[in-house]
Every structure is written in structure tokens, then in C-alpha cells.
């Protein structure tokens, strides 16, 4: 089965502001005598995020334009006007989205481009743009909080720890995943500097502080996804008080399976010469130049080296090697003193190994998606992974050994052997109209999930019934209390139980299961938005499970973005501004109110 992702919807960090004054502003078209009456003043920069301090100058200096006299003759826009604000907003959006440093406003190329493209625009100086970015963060954060989390019922989070090796600082990244306006949504909640030891309790405290800052409650958390590190698991369990609300990142489990297989001694004689060829090609400019020249112009590819921490980098290394094997052979044959090309037999063995590893890579790639439902696909994909590998018929001894090792790793209890015992994954699959119970291998596990879902739906029935009673009481002017309140609660429970069948399965769940499954390319969220009035209580339960991410990849992507921000020229960037820039970078144009 090949799932097709459904997508129902959707800084270079700055060192602290300079203490020097901003560069001179774009010259006006006023006479020299009038320009002389406008002295520049040094300003101070905003230091505290969320509480921006306006630079000392009342009207910050602007960088000079390098436009031609004919361009400069045009009257500049009045600072603070609607057009000026629009341009400054667009400039801030570019800085945040493209990871540009604040000092871009001082760079000659950018200044010249602006002087030609928008000669009327008075470019803010570095100090002013820093202040404005801080102000933008302080404006957008409460706005996003009010729009995204105002009526939220359930939320899932991922978190991970990353170390900035340049500054020797550790950061905790926290992302949130929820449903907004009938679509999956995600948000970077915080990127906080971890000054304490990376103990589970310290991580838990940082997450709680972040939740308080956003006006969220930990009771709203339905799932926490992290890697399998002991401190991460401990932090998740302490945070929710329920180990069933933690999920070991599925991408990390797949990584562990592949690492064990690729580290097996029977693969060493096959992979070692391949890595030697790649290393020689990268280290020798003669070999790399000849390899590039041998390929069609404009289509040249480079060999790739593996990274020890990521198995899929080894997969892509082998994949690229096989794609370029003919060019590599043609180059190496002219260098008898260099490394030698592997034999045709070894090439065939590599190709067989790749066909066995491809399903793992495909599954990892699919489950790492952000804007479509992933958690419900875990059990179906595991079963498809196992079945696909079992159907392979490798001929070489190496590939046969790889197949056996893969199946053994997949069926380990701490890998995917007991995957159906995870009720979060099982209920998510059942509530996904693409799968329902079709991919379950164990009827008892399905029955247990049906019972649990029915209980949750009945609870939703009772909540809805009580809300209806309260609304009716308000309309009638009646107030239930004491014995009357207990009676109305019992009546709500009885009315709720009438929706159950004799077999114990909730009526809405039974009717839903009788429906046909929808194609895998369709979006389950769209289905539920269409049928939410048909299955109102079941819809509320489905929302709880379909927002769950299958991996902690969102946290890892956050740190990849942080790495683009924390460069050598921004080594003074503090953690608060880093968090603000990452937050602004994650927002769409709509949320920026451009």
C-alpha cells in the first residue's frame, strides 16, 4: 500500500542590536539648507523581547540611496504612511522567512535594489528594524494565542533537546499540534535555553512554564511524542501523569531497525568499498571533476557521504552511488592507482539490498509529514512494511541475510511486534475512514479499541446532554441544584446509554464502521467535517486522535531552522530572540496580517 499525503491546508538570527547609531537615511529631495537642519542622533536598541523599547531617535536615520539623480528626484513617501508601513512589514516578513540578518538593511546590494525598485522607500536602520521585529513578535503572539487556542479542546506536543555546538548551549524545542478551522495546524510554542541538567523533571518544568505562558493546560494534552531517551520519556510521563499519553517517535523506531541491520557484519564487505570510492572521489578534485564532466551538462550529481546519526543518509548514499555507477566506473578505469570500482556482482547485491530498504525509507518519509494525518497510518504501514519485505525474493546471500534481519527487527516486541497493543495508534486507525479496522491482525485488540471508543463517545454524549440541560434551564429560568441536580445527571446518563446497542458498541461507532472506506489519497479530516452532524459525538472523539503526530520530526525541523539562524555572524543572539525569530518564521502570510 502506498499512501499519498493529503494536504487539506498549511531568522538569520540576529545578534543583539548594535550600540552604534543607524546609518544615514535616504536623502530627501529638499534643498541642502533644509537637509542641514536634520541632524542624526544615536539610538539605543531593544534588548527585551516582548517589551520592545523604541530607539532614542524620534525619527530613525535611514540608509542612503544609491539611485541615479533622476530616481532621487522622486518625492519619498512620508515616514509612517500606509505605504511605508506596508513596505516595512514586507521587509520584516522577508527577514523572518528568509533567515536574513537585521544588518541586511545596511548591505550595499540590498540598498541599491531598494533605491531602484522602490526609490520612495526610506529604509529603516538596523536599530529600528530590530525594535520593529521585537514589536511585531509582541503583537502577533497574543493574536495567535487568541485565534488558535481560544476554543481548543485537545492538543498534542512534541519536544526535543538540541545543542548549539558553536556557542555550547542547549535548547528545548516545543511544538504544538491541534485542529483549527477544520484543518490540522501546528505551532512552535517555544525554543528555550536549558541551563539546568537535562533531567526529566527540568524538561517537564520548562514545558509547564511554556503552557502557562500560552494560556494552555496540561490536561488538554492527549499525546506527547518524543524520542526514546530516558529523560524525554520521564518528562512526558511527569507532564501528563499517564504513560499511555506518550508515544516513542515512530521515525526513531524505524531508524533503530535500519541501524541494526546496516551495522551487521555481513554487510561490511559490501559497503566498505563503496564508502572508499565515495571518500576518494570527494577528497580528489581530479576524480570529482572528471565525474562531473562525464555527466550530461546541467544534470551533474555528486556522490553523497553517510552521516552516522541518520540511517537514511546511508540509504541515500547507496542510492546515489547506484545511480552514478556507470559514470564512476568510466572515471575510475582511467586511474589504476586509485580505488577500484566494485564488481558487477557486488553492484547486483547492492541493488537487492536497496529494494529491501526502500519500504523503510518510504514509511519514514510518509510519517514525517506535518500537514496531514499520520498517527492513524502507523499500524497499516507497519503491516504493509512487513508484507512487502516478506514478498521479496532476493537471490544473493547478503540480501537474504538482510531480509531475515529486517523481519526479525520489525517483529521485536520493543519495535513493532506489539504495535497493536498501543491503543492510541489502534483507535486512531479505526477512526480514520481510510482504514477503520481493515489492517488489524488481532481481533481481540480491535475489540478492546471498540470498547474504549464507545466509552469515550458515551462520555461525549453525556457532556452534550448536560450542556443541553443547562441551556434549557437558562432559557426556562430554572436552576438545578441538590437532589434535582443529581436527578438530571442520572437522566443524562440514561439518555446517553440509549445510544448503545446490546453488544456494547455505541450506535454511532457501529454505523460508522458499516460505511465503506475512502481512498487513501482522501483526507480523513475532510471526511469528518462532512459527517460531523451525522456522528456528532464520534466526531469529537475522532478529533482527539487524528491530530496526533506519529513522529517528533517537527521538533527536529525546528532545530534545523535554528541552525540556519545561529551562524558565526550571529553568535551573540540570545535565546529569547532566537525563539521569537523561529516563531515568526513559522507563521503564514495570513497570520502576519500583511
UniProtKB/TrEMBL annotation:
Pfam families, per the entry: Dimer_Tnp_hAT
GO molecular function terms noted in the UniProt entry: protein dimerization activity; zinc ion binding
Location (main, coarse): nucleus
Region (Disordered): 1-83
Keywords: Metal-binding, Nucleus, Zinc, Zinc-finger
Protein location: Nucleus
Domain of life per record: Eukaryota
InterPro entries registered for this protein in UniProt: HATC_C_dom, RNaseH-like_sf, ZnF_BED_domain_contain
Protein name according to UniProt: HAT C-terminal dimerisation domain-containing protein
Keyword Cell wall biogenesis/degradation in record: no
Sequence ranges of Polar residues compositional bias: 28-51, 63-77
The keyword Protein biosynthesis belongs to this UniProt entry's keyword annotation: no
Domain HAT C-terminal dimerisation positions: 508-586
CC terms in the record's Gene Ontology section: nucleus
Amino acid at each position: 500500500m502506498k499512501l499519498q499525503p493529503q494536504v487539506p491546508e498549511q531568522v538569520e538570527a540576529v545578534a543583539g542590536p548594535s550600540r552604534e547609531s543607524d546609518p544615514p537615511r535616504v536623502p530627501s529631495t529638499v534643498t541642502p539648507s533644509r537637509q542641514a537642519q536634520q541632524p542624526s542622533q544615536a539610538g539605543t536598541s531593544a534588548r527585551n523581547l516582548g517589551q520592545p523599547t523604541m530607539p532614542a531617535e524620534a525619527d530613525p536615520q535611514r540608509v542612503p540611496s544609491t539611485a541615479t539623480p533622476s530616481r532621487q528626484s522622486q518625492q519619498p513617501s512620508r515616514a509612517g504612511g500606509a505605504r511605508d508601513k506596508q513596505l516595512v512589514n514586507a521587509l520584516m516578513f522577508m527577514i523572518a522567512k528568509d533567515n536574513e540578518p537585521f544588518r541586511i538593511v545596511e548591505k550595499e546590494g540590498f540598498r541599491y535594489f531598494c533605491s531602484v525598485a522602490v526609490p520612495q522607500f526610506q529604509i529603516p536602520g538596523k536599530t529600528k528594524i530590530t525594535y520593529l521585529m521585537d514589536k511585531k513578535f509582541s503583537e502577533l503572539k497574543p493574536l495567535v494565542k487568541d485565534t488558535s487556542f481560544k476554543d481548543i479542546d485537545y492538543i498534542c506536543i512534541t519536544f526535543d533537546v538540541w545543542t548549539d555546538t558553536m556557542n555550547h548551549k542547549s535548547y528545548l524545542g516545543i511544538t504544538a499540534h491541534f485542529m483549527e478551522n477544520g484543518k490540522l495546524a501546528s505551532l512552535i510554542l517555544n525554543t528555550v535555553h536549558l541551563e539546568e541538567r537535562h533531567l526529566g523533571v527540568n524538561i517537564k518544568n520548562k514545558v509547564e512554564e511554556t503552557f502557562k505562558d500560552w494560556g494552555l493546560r496540561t490536561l488538554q494534552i492527549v499525546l506527547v511524542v518524543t524520542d526514546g531517551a530516558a529523560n524525554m520519556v520521564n518528562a512526558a510521563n511527569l507532564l501528563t501523569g499517564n504513560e499511555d499519553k506518550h508515544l516513542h517517535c515512530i521515525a526513531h523506531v524505524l531508524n533503530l531497525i535500519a541501524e541494526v541491520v546496516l551495522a551487521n557484519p555481513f554487510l561490511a564487505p559490501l559497503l566498505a568499498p563503496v564508502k572508499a570510492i565515495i571518500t576518494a572521489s570527494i577528497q580528489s578534485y581530479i576524480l570529482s571533476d572528471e565525474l562531473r564532466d562525464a555527466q550530461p551538462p546541467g544534470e551533474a550529481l555528486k556522490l553523497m557521504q553517510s552521516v552516522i546519526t541518520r540511517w537514511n543518509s546511508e540509504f541515500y548514499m547507496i542510492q546515489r552511488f547506484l545511480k552514478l555507477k556507470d559514470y564512476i566506473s568510466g572515471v575510475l578505469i582511467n586511474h589504476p592507482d586509485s580505488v577500484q570500482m566494485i564488481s558487477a556482482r557486488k553492484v547486483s547485491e547492492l541493488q537487492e539490498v536497496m529494494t529491501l530498504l526502500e519500504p523503510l525509507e518510504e514509511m519514514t518519509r510518509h510519517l514525517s509529514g506535518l500537514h496531514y494525518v499520520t498517527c492513524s497510518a502507523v499500524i497499516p504501514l507497519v503491516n504493509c512494511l512487513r508484507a512487502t519485505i516478506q514478498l521479496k525474493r532476493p537471490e544473493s546471500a547478503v540480501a537474504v541475510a538482510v531480509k531475515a534481519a529486517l523481519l526479525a527487527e520489525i517483529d521485536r516486541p520493543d519495535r513493532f511486534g506489539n504495535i497493536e497493543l498501543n491503543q492510541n495508534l489502534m483507535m486512531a486507525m479505526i477512526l480514520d475512514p481510510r482504514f477503520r479496522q481493515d489492517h488489524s491482525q488481532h481481533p481481540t485488540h480491535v475489540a478492546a479499541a471498540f470498547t474504549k471508543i464507545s466509552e469515550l463517545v458515551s462520555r461525549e454524549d453525556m457532556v452534550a446532554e448536560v450542556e443541553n440541560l443547562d441551556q434549557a434551564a437558562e432559557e426556562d429560568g430554572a436552576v438545578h441544584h441538590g437532589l434535582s441536580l443529581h436527578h438530571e445527571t442520572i437522566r443524562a446518563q440514561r439518555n446517553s446509554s440509549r445510544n448503545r446497542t446490546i453488544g456494547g458498541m455505541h450506535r454511532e461507532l457501529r454505523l460508522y464502521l458499516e460505511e465503506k472506506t475512502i481512498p487513501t489519497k482522501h483526507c480523513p479530516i475532510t471526511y469528518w467535517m462532512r459527517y460531523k452532524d451525522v456522528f456528532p459525538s464520534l466526531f469529537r472523539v475522532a478529533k482527539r486522535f487524528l491530530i496526533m503526530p506519529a513522529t517528533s520530526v517537527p521538533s527536529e525541523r525546528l532545530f534545523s531552522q535554528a541552525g540556519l539562524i545561529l551562524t558565526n555572524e550571529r553568535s551573540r543572539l540570545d535565546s529569547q530572540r532566537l525563539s521569537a525569530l523561529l516563531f515568526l518564521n513559522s507563521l503564514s502570510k495570513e497570520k502576519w496580517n500583511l
